[in-house]
From TrEMBL:
Keyword Protein biosynthesis on entry: no
Recorded family membership: Belongs to the major facilitator superfamily. Sugar transporter (TC 2.A.1.1) family. Belongs to the major facilitator superfamily. Phosphate:H(+) symporter (TC 2.A.1.9) family.
The organism of origin for this protein: Olea europaea subsp. europaea
GO MF entries: monosaccharide transmembrane transporter activity; symporter activity
Residue span, Major facilitator superfamily (MFS) profile domain: 1-311
Chief localization: membrane
Keywords: Membrane, Sugar transport, Symport, Transmembrane, Transmembrane helix, Transport
Official protein name in the record: Sugar transport 8-like
Membrane protein topology class: Multi-pass membrane protein
UniProt superkingdom: Eukaryota
Length: 344
């Protein structure tokens, strides 16, 4: 439990490595004419092959095995994970959790009950807010953005590589800090840094971007630095927390269903932002950055008033120790008695 956040963020860490590799490939083949784009597109199939092979050899989790009645296999998997022979205490706790989960015959119906609203609202909101930081717009269109402020084609691709490196290194900061500092502090610090970065970028482009779509070299370099500061703060906060927090907040009986709803919101708004950004950028120009700055301000207020701290709280104790004690969300819990227990 003390390393739960760090282990979860490894997912986001490898995503950032993938983004960096993609940017390196784009930069490497940018001068290969006329098939450079075909090489870049074709190489995207390589990680897909690794994912397919991995899906064939990945092991099941103890909870999944026990929930499907494979108690012996679940016990062996738990022994392998913990590196211990004596796992009886934890095994009993998993069996109890699975038994509670089996009693829920209609998880979708359970998910939309009043008592399930706090984790559902938090899970979906964090995923949606992750996209409204503007990060995917920045990462998807970094080369276009840097060309707009005066970099040449190859230079813009190289700048995108630099921001991808910042993304990877800053995610490591999150891995180290999340279980020490907590989720809320990282999110709030990042909101301030992202807000300042977005306002500064917008202000520079609004006042200094020339009609030809270029900036002085000095200001263009400042924009690159500000983009890196923005990516840096996102990478140790809303990037990994967007996946970590929803994975912690749902109880076992609605965890799979609830997390699926949260992720679907992420995918939907990733699509919307990706499709809308270029049109918004052309029409709003520098004001697009002020638009995202306003979203970031709203996100900060959301964290202050609605997002509870989950650091150090066992997942199966969230209801009693988090939701029933939060000044806003406790009103949703009513008098329902929920049997909880701690994972040791």
């Amino acid at each position: 439990m003390q390393h739960r956040g760090a282990v979860n963020i490894l997912f986001q860490f490898f995503v950032t490595i993938g983004i960096l590799v993609a940017n390196l490939v784009n930069y490497a083949v940018s001068s290969t004419h006329p098939n450079g784009w075909r090489i870049a597109l074709g190489l995207a199939g390589v990680p897909a092959v690794f994912l397919f092979i991995g899906s064939l050899i990945i092991s099941e989790t103890p909870s999944s095995l026990i929930e499907r009645g494979k108690e012996f296999e679940g016990k062996e998997a738990l022994r392998k994970i913990r590196g211990l022979d004596d796992v009886e205490s934890e095994l009993e706790q998993i069996k109890l959790a699975c038994e509670i989960a089996r009693q829920v015959k209609h998880p979708y119906k359970k998910l939309f009950k009043r008592a399930s609203m706090p984790p559902l609202i938090i899970g979906r909101s964090v995923q949606v807010f992750q996209q409204f930081t503007g990060i995917n717009a920045i990462m998807f269109y970094a080369p276009v953005l840097f060309q707009t402020v005066g970099f040449k084609s190859d230079s813009s691709l190289l700048s995108a590589v630099i921001t991808a490196i910042v993304n990877v290194l800053s995610t490591i900061v999150s891995i180290v800090a999340v279980d020490r500092v907590g989720r809320r502090k990282l999110l709030l610090q990042a909101c301030m840094q992202m807000f300042i970065s977005m306002v500064a970028i917008g202000s520079i482009l609004l006042t200094h971007l020339k009609p030809t779509g270029s900036l002085d070299k000095g200001l263009a370099a400042v924009v690159v630095v500000l983009v890196c500061l923005f990516v840096m703060s996102f990478a140790w906060s809303w990037g990994p927390m967007g996946w970590l927090i929803p994975s912690e907040t749902f109880p076992l009986e609605t965890r799979t269903t609830g997390f699926a709803f949260a992720v679907s919101a992420n995918m939907l708004f990733t699509f919307i932002i990706a499709q809308a950004f270029l049109s918004m950028s052309c029409n709003m120009r520098a004001y697009i950055f002020f638009f995202f700055a306003i979203q970031i301000l709203i996100m900060g207020l959301f964290v202050v008033f609605l997002l509870p701290e989950t650091k150090g709280v066992p997942i199966d104790c969230m209801t009693e120790r988090v939701w029933k004690k939060h000044p806003v969300w406790k009103k949703f819990m009513g008098k329902e008695v929920v049997k909880n227990y701690e994972m040791t």
